[in-house]
Amino acid sequence: MEPLIRLRNLEKVIEAGPNKFWLLRRINLDIQAGEFVTIMGPSGAGKSTLLSIIGMLDGAWSGDFYFLGEAVHKLNVKKRNELHKANIGFVFQSYHLIDNLTVFENLEVPLSYKNVPHKERVSLVCDTLDRFHIVGKKDLFPNQLSGGQQQLVGVARAVILSPKLILADEPTGNLHSAQGEEIMQLFKRLNDGGTTIIQVTHSERNASYGSRIIQLKDGWVVGDNATAGAPVGAAQPA
């Protein structure tokens, strides 16, 4: 089966004069559609860098990257952006809400990428506001929300169209425990419905919701294992 994501000899380096600083080294991974993958490791291991590359937010890397069979490493910026917008929802650690848009308008943003008709956009946003219990916040701007509320809106925005792939960078880091459990249970339900999820987290609890843990250290993959009770057959690179 063709994997959703295939990485071969993926590397990222920063050059400062004669010096080179490697952020990722020789990454070889296959991720199948429907997996729930957790990327773990110490600070500076390259976790968020790898997530940004998979999400096509970072184009400064070398190696081969295939997504849905498309050779991402051969695509120009416009084509990469189109592929990202059509298939990927991203939950950022630092929210990345648009400051001059209300909560309602922030939730509309990914719908506009897919040219969803206005009436359907309003219906989807209203359903999502209700689902996340943030109807009362719909007319507020990000700077009027707490950090936890902003993250909740960020998660809602990422899942509003149930994309093929959800990338989450510390998705519950700024939420209280009950909200965090709610978000992880939502991710689990989405994954059970076929959505592929890749999360970066330091939380063993969050990792337990997934089926596979990839360990990074100093930019290298140093571990790739199924979690306890995970489905048999998690993809491994050829």
How would you explain this protein's 3D organization?
- There is one protein chain.
- The protein is α/β, with parallel strands linked by helices and 238 residues long.
- Helix content is 32%, strand content 27%.
- It folds into two domains: 5-87, P-loop containing nucleotide triphosphate hydrolases (Rossmann fold); 91-197, P-loop containing nucleotide triphosphate hydrolases (Rossmann fold, 3-Layer(aba) Sandwich).
- The protein has a six-stranded mixed beta sheet with strand order 6-7-8-3-9-10, sandwiched between helices.
- Strand 4 and strand 5 (70-71) form a beta hairpin.
- The radius of gyration is 18 Å and the shape is globular.
- The N and C termini lie close together (12 Å).
From the structure above, extract its key features:
238 residues; alpha/beta; Rossmann fold; 6-stranded mixed β-sheet; 4-stranded antiparallel β-sheet; 10 strands; 32% helix; disordered C terminus
Set out the fold topology.
Elements lengths: L4 E12 L2 E13 L4 E5 L6 H8 L7 E6 L2 E2 L5 H11 E4 L11 H11 L4 H14 L15 H13 L5 E5 L7 H16 L3 E5 L3 H4 L4 E6 L2 E7 L12
Parallel strand pairs: 3-8, 3-9, 6-7, 7-8
Antiparallel strand pairs: 1-2, 1-4, 4-5, 9-10
Helix pairs in contact: 3-4, 3-5
Looking at the overall shape, the CATH architecture of the largest domain is: 3-Layer(aba) Sandwich
Number of helices: 7
Question: What is the residue-averaged pLDDT?
Answer: 89
CATH topology of the largest domain: Rossmann fold
Main sheet attributes: strand count, strand direction, barrel closure: 6 strands, mixed
Please state roughly what percent of the residues sit in beta strands, choosing from under 5%, 5-15%, 15-25%, 25-35%, 35-45% or over 45%.
25-35%
What's the total number of strands? 10
Helix content: 25-40%
Cα end-to-end separation:
12 Å
In CATH terms, the superfamily of the largest domain is: P-loop containing nucleotide triphosphate hydrolases
Number of domains: 2
User: What is the 3D form?
Assistant: globular
- Spatially, the strands of the biggest sheet line up as 6-7-8-3-9-10
What is the H/E string? EEEHEEHEHHHEHEHEE
Low-pLDDT runs of 5+ residues are 229-238
Structural class: alpha/beta
Text of the CATH class of the largest domain: Alpha Beta
Round the Cα radius of gyration to an integer and report it.
18 Å
